[in-house]
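Researcher: Good morning. I'm working through a list of sequences from a screen, and I'd like to move beyond sequence-only analysis. For each chain I'm collecting a predicted structure so we can compare shapes side by side. This is the next one on the list. No need for commentary yet; just the structure.
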Amino acid sequence: MARGKKYKAALTKVDRNTSYSLEDATKLIKEASYTKFDSTVDLAVNLGVDPRQADQNVRGAVPLPHGLGKVVRIVVFAKGDAAAAATAAGVEAVGGDDLGTRISGGWLDFDQVIATPDMMGVVGKLGRVLGPRGLMPNPKLGTVTMDVVKAINELKAGRVEFRVDKAGIIHAPVGKVSFSAEKLAGNARAVLEAIARAKPASAKGTYLKKVSMSATMSPSVKVDASPFRA
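Model: Good morning. Structure tokens for this chain:
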């Protein structure tokens, strides 16, 4: 793939054979980013797991200490007091069967879905719509809960869900290039620590194999994973 002059200039700032500390990596990413828009900074973590095995399907969620720098649009399936609390917390929509009908009819102007356990019968009917988009509520991720206000606040503050893909890699956003290097490093550290805690008991050998970070359209920077392997 042919690279432009700006990419090649950015690449000269990064030693591809060096694994940088998290703090140095975030500084480099800010220096190497050249887009006119506020690029997203992503973390890529190559794990020593076999995603084909059910007991090695690494998945989880973690609140970021410095958020993601974007507005998160949330809908909530709830009724009664939980619905009233969700409405007061400020979300895109709250409802039950009526909300399900609206979504099945094609309305998808939201980023996250929260549901109380008693509403999962309604949400389950939307599996073909929400599932492929990664929007199905999940108790393990804290999006099936009676404490809808806590879930809403965590999502609005900036919570990242992560899941290993078929290649054994987790991709997760950790902020914007406009963030300070310290905030980017803090967010990335939170994600890496959460992934480390999610290590399956059946995983053998090196779990955190490779870690890298990059901004949209910019060169990736290798990150020293050794501090997170303990």
